[in-house]
Structure formats: C-alpha cells, structure tokens
C-alpha cells in the first residue's frame, strides 16, 4: 500500500506592537499564495510593505496603501486592488492581503516579511515541490528462487507530504513496503517506487533478478543424430539454456572430453570425433544436460591389412594354403573385401583360401576393400603353384624323326615346371651343352647324328625325361680313318675290324685278291640300327694270304662304300704325312703330323731341328715320341728357339724293322715382345 499525506496549515508570527503575518506552510509556484498582515488597531491611513526574500535576496516587494476615510486600497499607490484582484484591504482596517505568485528563486524555503509603521514581522515558508530523492533508485537486487525478499521501504523527500506505492511487473502494491514471499520467476523484473504529493509524482526504479538454475537445455538445430563423411565440416550445433545468472555451457563427449563453448563446432571432422555428445548447462543454482547428440563419421579404408602379412606364397599343386589370408581395414560403415586375380576374375570375399590349388591359379591376387565412402586395393599377393618338371614335347623340324643326310634341322624340347626346371639334352649318353626353354639343338644331319636323343628336366619337386630316336638316311661309311696298308708277321694273327655308320642297315661283303683272282672271305658282322661292326680274323698268316682284302657295303643310298686293305709282311714304317710347323712365338714351335703305316710293329718318331740360314746342323729334340693311337694327329712342342729365326724340322718314323725316310717342315719364330 502506497500512502501520501498533504497537510495544510497557517503560520502566524507573534505580535510586535500589534503586527502579525500569516501564510500557508507551503508556497505553491505559479499560483496565488495569500500573505496577510494583521493589525491590532486601525488607523485611517496605513502603508504595509510585503517582501519575499530568497537566499538573502528580495525577489518580491510591493506596498499596499489603505485609507479608510476615502475607502481607498491600492497597490503601490497606482492600481486599485479591487480592479486587479491581487490585493485586498479589510474594511475595518485590521488587515491587508497580497497574492504572491512564485515563479523562480529560492532553494526550497522563502522568507515572508511585512512592514507597517516602522514595525515588521517575518515568517519562513517552504516552496511546494514534487517529491525528490526517491529511494531506493537504480538499484539491483538478486533474489534466489524460492526465498523471501524484503520488506524494502520506499522513501522520498516530500513537501507537501507524499503517498507511496510499488508498481511491479505483475502487480501494484499501495504501500511503501515491498515484500516478496517465496520468490518465483514471475517476480523477476523492474519495480517502480512512486512518491506522490500535490505537486506530482516521482519514481525510483529497482531491478529484482531472480536467480535460478536451468530447467531446459535447447539445441539448435533440434536434432539428436548426425552422419557425416570424414573431412566434412559439421554444421555448428548451438546449445542454449534459460538461467540466472547465465549458465556456463560446455559440450561433453562420452569419453569425458570437454569442449568449453556453447557451440559444438567440428570442422573437417575426423573419425576419432565420432561419438555421443551432451551439452551441460550449469550455474550456482542448478545443472542440466541436453539430450544425447550422436555423431557418426563415415570413412573409407586408409590401409588394407593382410593377415598373415606375407606377399609371396609357394604352394605345391593340389595342396592348399596352410591358412586363409584375411583382408581387413578400419572403415565406417564396415568394409567388404573382394579378392580378384590379376586377370580381373573374382575369387572370393574377405578371406582367400585356395583349396587343392591348380597350376592355372598361379598369379597375383589383390584384395579390394570398400564401403559407400571409398575403396582401396591391397598390395599384390604373389601365389606361385609349384609342380614337378615335365616334358611338354620333344620335336624335330619336319614330320618324323627320319631325315635325309645334310639337311638343316633342329631338335626342340619344351619343358615345364615351377620352380623353373633345369633342362638337359643327351645324344645317346653324351650331354649337349644347350640351355633355354625350349631347348633348341640345331644340326646339319649327318650319318653319325643317328641315335637316341633324350630330353631331361628336373626341379626341386620332381624330374622327367623323354627319349626319341633320330634316324639319318646315309650310305655306309667308316667311323674312323682306315689304313690302306697292314703289315703282319708270318704265322701271326691278322685282325681287321672296323665300325660303319649306315641307315638303313647295310649288306657287307669281303673279297681277297692276289694275282688278279678274287675269292670271298668270311667275315664276322654285328649289324645294329645305324652303327655296325665288321671284321675278318686269320689266326696263322701264311705267305699265300698276303694280298688285297676288299670290303664293300651297300644299303640302297647312293655312294656305296668300298675299301681295299693291302696286307704285307712286317717291315719299317711308312713316311709320316701332313707334317707342319707353326712358329707363332719367339722361342718355341708347335709341330703336328699324321702317322702312316707302322709296318706291322709299334712305331716311334725322331724329331730334329736346325737354323736354316747357316750351315744346317740338326740338333736332336727327341727320339722316343710315341704314336698317339687314339688320335688322328700327333703333336709336339719344341722349346728353346731363338726369336726372329728361320728353322727347319726333320721327322723320321721307326720300328724294330728300320726307319722310314724323313720328312721336313719349316717356320720362322717371331721377334721378342710380339705375340
């Protein structure tokens, strides 16, 4: 309840020789305020001076002249009071009155004075004003929700007296006391303290703030679930709450991570930022969390993991991988792995097993792992299926393995196997130093190429071979050089034996001729496929058996073979043939020759040399050089020669029956330092 009081009263100054002054307690500006002077007795003519003093300065001064005898009442002796209405004279001469209109001056109090017949009387009055110094004003009060507030007294400086009231957000209280019982949010707001008197109303303002905790946490946008691809900017999510004082707003992840801001801002979101978030609003008066906000981050594979972490496997054919190869990656949503071989053919999902593997499954396998975001391919996994060596084929140019002589052809052997097998080619049991796959053996067919050709292959898993027989069509011919003269002792054994090449098989005949007559000689023949042996054997040679022994062999191929052996009694050797010297160095020479008939006895050779440009005197080199029965040629080296010198060499064959004539050869040694 607000209450204002207005009090009206008069002030009478005490008499001084009969003079008094009267006025109201308050001077109201801009209105007629009556000031009255009273006299104890009258006189016919009286002048009364009215003075108003403010702050020591006269702001109003007028004289009222009253003359009873003439019924005269004037203001300052000029205007009749009845005419102007601002002054009045008592007809009995006991008082006069003047109207004072206060417009300005003074600081709340005035001095009123009246003077008459050298007497004066003064009194003090207050200038009426609207209330001032309203209290409380411009003040903030904080009240906890549910608690009591007050009483708070509204006061003011009032003249005339005031009545008071409180005007609140929802109610008016006609009292100077403000009291709030069990404060609620509706009590929050601005309150006006109003002080009212005759001059008007003045107001003081206060603010009552109700302190309260959050009762709702609001999210904007109002969504609780989001899904984004990694590295995408997430739209800001703003958290607000109605609190007093303002709440501290923080975002909290389920892992306990705290983001100290009301805005959840996730730029270029990463997979580790996925999860459940809550906004926490708190102040000293309460705490509340928002509904859960679930943020899912989709991302493709960044690394393909193979287990076991091997990139090369060797598996025997028809066996299986010891363990499946799994293909995984960290993805969201989960990835699916697809295994393909290098040809692009699909193999399996997720795990690569390869049971009972076949050789055509050798290759590079790779796993492509993907989801709706992206995909990635693993490194290549090399799978090698091993198997033993195999012969794919042994072939020859042409239709079959029977070919004419002097034809350019080639044998080819294709081998297979993992690991790569070592291939070898054999002619009969002789290995040909040939490599490669296929193994290629070129040849110009000759009679002695007939035989078994075997292709063999071997690796760590196994081995294989294949043999085919090659037949070269050729007329009969000896395998080795045949002597034309054979010397044997009387009563000794004559044994002539030779090997012939021939395909197809030959017909062989021996004839003996002496003094122009021929007779057939019985022979011992061993006929093979392409190699044949023919021999005659006489155990006790007689003089009548020395002569010509003729061998003939035919097989239907042009150029039949015929050879004559002259069988003689034992004697000295024949002269060696094809004797030559080579001096390709400054201090030695290489010599070679072909031995001739040994005369039916073991022969040896004597070798001599001499400088050619002086009187020739031969020096002995050796006199015990044996015949090399396994080779067509004999070889000998002569050391200790002089450089840049011409030499002559002399060769003699001998046995127990004597010596052959000599044969000579020549050469020039080189200069020193020249090779």
From the alpha-carbon coordinates, what is the Rg to the nearest angstrom?
Answer: 75 Å
Q: pLDDT average, as an integer?
A: 90
Highest CATH level, the class of the largest domain: Mainly Beta
The main β sheet shows up as: 8 strands, mixed
Proportion of residues in β-strands: over 45%
What structural category do the secondary elements indicate? Answer: mainly beta
Named at the architecture level, the CATH assignment of the largest domain is Sandwich
Could you name the ranges where pLDDT drops below 50 across 5 or more consecutive residues? 1-17
Shape call: rod-shaped
Helix content: under 10%
Would you give an account of this structure?
The protein is mostly beta strands and 675 residues long. It folds into 7 domains: 10-127, Sandwich (Immunoglobulin-like), CATH 2.60.40; 130-211, Immunoglobulin-like (Sandwich), CATH 2.60.40; 217-298, Immunoglobulin-like (Sandwich); 305-379, Immunoglobulins (Immunoglobulin-like); 387-468, Sandwich (Immunoglobulin-like); 479-569, Immunoglobulins (Immunoglobulin-like); 577-668, Immunoglobulin-like (Sandwich). Helices cover 1% and strands 57% of the residues. It is built from 1 helix and 62 strands. The strands form 13 sheets. Strands 32, 34, 35, 37, 38, 39, 41 and 44 form an 8-stranded mixed beta sheet that branches. Strands 40, 42, 43, 45, 46, 48, 51 and 52 form an 8-stranded mixed beta sheet that branches. A hairpin with a 2-residue loop joins β20 (189-197) and β21. The longest helix is centred in the first third of the chain and has 4 residues, at 81-84. Mean pLDDT is 90; it is low at 1-17.
């Amino acid at each position: 309840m607000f209450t204002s009081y207005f009090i009206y009263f008069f002030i009478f100054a005490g008499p001084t020789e009969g003079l008094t002054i009267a006025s109201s307690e308050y001077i109201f500006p801009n209105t007629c305020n009556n000031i009255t002077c009273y006299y104890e007795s009258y006189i016919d003519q009286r002048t009364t001076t009215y003075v108003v003093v403010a702050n020591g300065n006269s702001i109003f001064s007028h004289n009222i002249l009253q003359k009873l005898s003439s019924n005269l009442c004037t203001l300052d002796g000029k205007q009749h009071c009845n005419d102007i209405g601002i002054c009045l004279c008592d007809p009995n001469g006991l008082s006069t009155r003047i109207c004072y209109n206060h417009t300005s001056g003074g600081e709340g109090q005035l001095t009123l004075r009246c003077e008459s017949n050298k007497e004066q009387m003064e009194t003090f009055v207050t200038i009426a004003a609207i209330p001032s110094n309203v209290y409380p004003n411009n003040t903030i009060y904080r009240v906890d929700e549910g608690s009591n507030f007050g009483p708070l007294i509204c006061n003011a400086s009032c003249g005339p007296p005031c009545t008071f009231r409180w005007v609140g957000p929802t109610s008016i209280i006609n009292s100077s006391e403000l009291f709030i019982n069990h404060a609620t949010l509706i009590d929050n707001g601005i309150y006006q303290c109003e002080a009212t008197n005759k001059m008007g109303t003045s107001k003081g303002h206060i603010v009552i703030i109700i302190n309260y905790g959050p009762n709702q946490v609001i999210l904007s946008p109002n969504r609780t679930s989001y899904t984004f691809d990694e590295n995408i900017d997430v739209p800001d999510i703003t958290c607000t709450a109605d609190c007093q004082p303002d709440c501290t707003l923080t975002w909290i992840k389920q892992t306990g991570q705290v983001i100290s801001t009301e805005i959840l801002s996730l730029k270029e979101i990463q997979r580790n930022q996925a999860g459940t978030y809550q906004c926490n609003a708190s102040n000293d008066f309460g705490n509340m969390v928002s509904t859960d906000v679930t943020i899912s981050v989709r991302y493709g594979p960044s690394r393909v993991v193979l287990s076991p972490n091997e990139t090369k496997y060797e598996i025997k054919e028809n066996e299986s991988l010891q363990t499946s190869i799994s293909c995984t990656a960290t993805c969201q949503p989960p990835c699916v792995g697809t295994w393909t071989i290098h040809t692009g053919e699909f193999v399996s999902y997720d795990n690569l097993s390869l049971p009972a593997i076949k050789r055509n499954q050798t290759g590079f396998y790779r796993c492509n792992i993907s989801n709706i975001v992206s995909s990635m391919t693993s490194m290549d996994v090399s799978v090698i299926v091993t198997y033993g060596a195999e012969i794919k084929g042994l072939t020859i140019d042409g239709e079959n393995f029977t070919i004419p002589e002097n034809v350019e052809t080639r044998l080819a052997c294709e081998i297979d196997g993992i690991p790569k097998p070592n291939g070898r080619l054999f002619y009969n049991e002789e290995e040909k130093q040939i490599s490669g796959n296929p193994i290629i053996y070129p040849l110009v067919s000759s009679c002695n190429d007939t035989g078994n050709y075997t292709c063999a292959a071997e690796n760590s898993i196994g081995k294989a071979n294949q043999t085919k027989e090659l037949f070269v069509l050729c007329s009969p011919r000896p395998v080795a050089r045949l002597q034309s003269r054979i010397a044997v002792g009387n009563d000794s054994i004559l044994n002539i034996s030779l090997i012939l090449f021939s395909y197809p098989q030959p017909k062989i005949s021996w004839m003996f001729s002496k003094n122009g007559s021929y007779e057939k000689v019985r022979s011992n023949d061993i006929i093979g496929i392409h190699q044949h042996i023919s021999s005659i054997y006489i155990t006790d040679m007689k003089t009548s058996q020395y002569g010509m022994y003729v061998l003939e062999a035919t097989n239907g191929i042009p150029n039949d073979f015929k050879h004559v052996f002259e069988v003689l009694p034992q004697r000295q050797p024949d002269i060696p043939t094809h004797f030559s010297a080579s001096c390709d160095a400054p201090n030695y020479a290489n010599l070679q020759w072909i031995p001739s008939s040994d005369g039916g006895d073991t022969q040896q050779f004597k070798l001599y040399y001499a400088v050619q440009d002086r009187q020739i005197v031969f020096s002995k080199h050796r006199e015990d050089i044996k015949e090399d029965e396994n080779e067509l040629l004999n070889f000998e080296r002569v050391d200790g020669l002089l450089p840049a010198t011409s030499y002559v060499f002399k060769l003699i064959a001998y046995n127990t029956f004597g010596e052959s004539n000599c044969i000579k050869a020549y050469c020039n040694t080189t200069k020193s330092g020249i090779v």
